[in-house]
Every structure is written in structure tokens, then in C-alpha cells.
Amino acid sequence: METIMRKILTSAILGAMVFLLAGCPNPPVAPEKAPVDERTVTPPAPTSDTNSNPVASSTVDSSGLADVKKGVLAKRSIYFEFDKYDIQEQYRPLVEAHARYLVAHPDRKMLIQGNCDERGSREYNLALGQKRADAVKRALILLGAKETQIESVSLGEEKPRALGHDEASWAENRRGDVLYTGEY
Amino acid sequence: MPTALNSAWIRAFYIALLCVLAGLAAPARAQLTIEITGGGATRIPVAVATFAGDGLLPQALAGVVRADLERSGLFRMVDPGIGPAPTEAQAISYGDWKTRGADALVVGSISPTADGRFEVRFRLHDIVKQAQLGGVAYTMASAQVRTTAHHISDYVYEKLTGNRGIFSTRIAYVVHRSARTEQGVAHGADFLLQIADADGANPQTALVSKEPIISPTWSPDGTRIAYVSFENKKPVVYVHSLVTGNRSVLANYKGSNSAPAWAPDGAHLAVVLSRDGGSQMFLLRPDGSDLNRLASSSAIDTEPCFSPDGQSIYFTSDRGGSPQIYRMPATGGEATRVTFEGSYNVTPRVSPDGKSLAYIARNGGRFQLMLLDLASKQTQVLTEGGADESPSFSPNGKMILYATASGGRGTLSAVSSDGRVRQRLSVQAGDVREPTWGPYGN
Questions:
Q1: Which of A172, B285, B327, B396 would suit a FRET pair with B125, their CA atoms being 20 to 30 Å apart?
Q2: pTM above threshold 0.90
Q3: Residues B327, B328, B332: CA angle, nearest 5 degrees
């Protein structure tokens, strides 16, 4: 009895934490089955009278990453305000989708790279990028992903995606990127 | 006559050899040039006479000494005039030199030795007091003209200013080269860790990488450099021997590894790791062993820097809501806040005498090099730049080397710790950043 009560209490506390810290309005749900394109393959008619069967050329995606390149899972960037590392409301669906995916695929691993704009100290920016990556990691863990699935690192201001020296470029570079094993 | 002929042949041979070596090394070289953009209020007028026998060498020795002294911003060169150069063995006509306006005079001579090397002798005279201040003799190979000249400059600088010279020291920095085509071959963007003489000459590439290199820092004995490399898609700290070229991983834990700082005794380094969450400071040995956490906070703690006595660590932390500089005992313990003005004070670097702190402050929208007197708490803005980063004291504490931006490209600058003398160091190819001044040689 006591054990059950503790379990219920733990679940309630965890749920509340997830709601408070990650702002998730819905509890984690199992992901739908990844959609599959159904196609019928018709072998092409022989074009010459040779002794060989016709060979169709195809490319195999051996990365196993096709499922994370579709829909909301294809969205990988979370943007931050200057000198800030809190996740803004608009990125919650993205974070929730990746959390659901990690929960459903416990063998999958993820690297989160935090980035900063070029202004100020390189080392302080490295630490700031780490805070951004950690914020994303923490939200994913609160939504059910395992700590061992995720490594958060910082690239600081060293790998800018936008190369300009203006506000638009700086905004583009204040970012956390989500990558799955095989993508980095 | 046979001696002179031999010398001429030797000289021609060395010049040819140097040309060949220079040609081979050319693609990796990116020579720094130094431009002085300010000077001390009272510069000492000094004449450096061309050394007798200078023609035996592949490069004019007196010219290197003149350039060194002039670049310091503390001396004004007096034209020694034409005519036969006096040597250190001759009596000096103090009156003549006084008329030319010199307060001090350097004279010297170069002569070949029996084993194919050269003896360089020089003497420094105080024209005002009409007295000799001393002299030294060196034996050198013809490829050591610059090294010998820097030693002479160090001697003159110390005798005339009372401070140890820094002309024989080296600097390290990172060059970022963009994608380019050299002699028909396409190269991707890359990063070079380079070591050069303090005057920017003789740049040597210690490391080439496709990924960024940041935060290089010299071991106290000058034989190794610790730095952060992104070659494994995340920051990892390495220690690189300049003697053997071997490099070893100092810290590669889960998360980010960065901000190496050597303790003055060279037996430990401080690093910043995110392996336990956040960016936190740890101590470890140069081989990576004996890792111990130095402090514990929920905030960013980074950019550690040891005080010269090894007793304290200065660092940047946002524990108070904005990045500020703090100090704590090097054995761990309570931190005390050091900077209070403004909302962004980062990258603390303690002067070699431990009395002042160079750091970067955001003033308005500009990032500027600042100097704080630790006793009086007075601060001084040393630069007018807007994008200053990575300050590094010269080992005598008289100059601070730092990175800044000019025309969208990274350049290096140096400013005297009184703010009066300014130098700009520029490199032809690419963007230069992350300068760090090496220690005195032995």
C-alpha cells in the first residue's frame, strides 16, 4: 500500500516538475508508428536481348535516420535570446516531439550542441552555449528521455552558421541544435 | 684574403639555404607585421651604430636591434650617420654623439671564428654621463642573427629602463584561414596554431586543424601549450609539446572541456568541465590524472587564471546574475567578487607582479580591455576598440597583447600597461585571434 502511494506520489511530483520546468501541457505519449510509403515495384521491360536480368538501381539509407528527418522531428534548432538560456514557449512542440522519440527508441542517442553569437569572450560563450545545450537536455529528460541517451556540448561562438556581423546573423547563431547518432 | 673569400662563400651558402627553406615553408607561413600606433611620452633617444663587419651576416644585426627598441615605444632612434662605424674597442667621442641628440649609444663588431661561426661583441654607452654601461660577447651561427640581436635589445632595454626585456620571448596565436586556392590546389578553411618570435618573425605552425582551436596557453617553462580543439565535434583540452610535437588529451569528459590554465609551478592545470552539469572548474595534473573539483556552483564558472604566487584563482562567473570576475583560494573555498562596475566583466588575467588585473568589459555596446589596480581598486580603460578579447601580459608586465577586430577580420594588438604605447600586429592571410605571450626563456 505504502509502495503504491509512494509511486503515485512520485509520479505526481515528476509530472508537476515536467510541467513547471519544461512547460509541457501534455504527458509524454508513445509516438505513432513511423509512416511508410507503400509502393509497387514493376520491373522494367528488357531493353535488349541479353542473358542478364534487368537490374534496378537503388540507394540504401543505411543510416537508419529516415524517421527523424520527417515532420516535426526534422526541426532541430531552438533559438535563444541574447545572454539567455531559457527555452521559449514556441519551441515546446519541437522539444516534446524529440522527447517522445527518445522514449520510444531507448537505443537511440543524441548530441545537443549549444551555440552563441560572436560578441564577447570565447570561453564565456562556450559556457553560455553549454547552458543552452543543458537546458534542452534537461527538458528532454524531464519528458522521459534517459540521461544516458543525451550528451550536451557547446560549440560556443566557434561554429557560426551565419557569418555576418549583424543582429540577424547573431540571432541565427544563438541556437541549440539536436543531432542523432549518425548525424555528427 | 682567403678568410674573406671563405666568409663570402659561407654567407652565400647560408643565404641560398635560407631561401630554399623559406620556399619550402612558404605555404604554412603567415608572417605577422607590427605597426606602432602610439608612443611613450618621453622616449629615450638611442643611436645603434651599424656593427663593424655586419656585411658578413645574411641580415643586418643592428637593424633588428633598432626595430626591437623602436617597437617598444620607449626609445627614439637617432640616425648614427654614415662613415666608418665605431666599434666597441674604440674610444667614443661623446661630444659628437651628444650633438646628434643621442642619450645612449650601442656600438659593436662582428668577426668570424675559426670554426665557421661568428663572434658578436657590443658595448652600451651613456652619452649624457659619458660612461660605459657594459657589454657582452656572443658566439653564434649565421642563422642566429635575429636571436643574438634580440639578446642585445634585451640588454639595452634593461640597462636603460630598469625592466627586463621581452624581445627574446615568443607568442602563440591562432590563424583562421578561409577556403582558398593556392597554386591551383583548393584548400578548405582551416585553423593554425602558430608560434612566433615576439616581433612576429619566424612563425612556425605547431598544429593545423579543420576545426577551431581556442584558448592556447603556455606552460610556465615554455615547452608546452595547452589548448582547446574542436576536432572531435566538441571541445576537448590537449597538451602539446613544442619540443617533440607530441600531443596528448588532457581532458575529454562527457560534455564540454575547456579553459585550461597552468598553475605557476607547472605541476597542475585548472580546466572547466561540464561533465557533472554546468561549467565548473577542476584541477588536474598535466598528464590528466588526479582530477579534483575546485568549486561547486549552479552558475557558470569559467576562465580560471592563477595569481603568480599560485595562491589564488581569478575566474568569471554569472552567479550574481551577470558575468563578473571573482577570486578564490587555489585550494578551493569561498569566492569573493572582484569587479562591480557594469554588467559584463570577463577573462581575468593577473599581471606578473600580481598587482593588477587585465580583463574585458562591455562598456555600452563595446568590448574593451581594462586594467584594475588590485590594491586601489582603480580601473582604467586601455583601448578604444569595440571587440577586444583574450588579453595576455608580456612576462615583464609592461605590455598586454590582445585580440581585436579590424574591417571584419581578427587582428592582434598590444598596448603598454600604462595605455601609452600601442602596436598593431597584422597577418596577411586570414584572421588572427587567441594570442598568448610565452614566458621568459632560460
A1: B396
A2: no
A3: 160
